[in-house]
Amino acid sequence: MRRRQFIHRHASAIVSTRIQPYHHPVLLVTIWVALALFAAGEAGKGPLAVNGRPPWWARPVWIAGAVLAIVHALIAFDVRYDWNHAAAVTATAAQAADLYGFAWRGSLYVNYAFLALWLAAWRWRHWAWRAFVLMMIVNGAIVFARPAARPLGAVLVAALVWVWWPRANPA
Question: What's the CA gap between 126 and 164, in Å, rounded?
Answer without folding.
Answer: 10
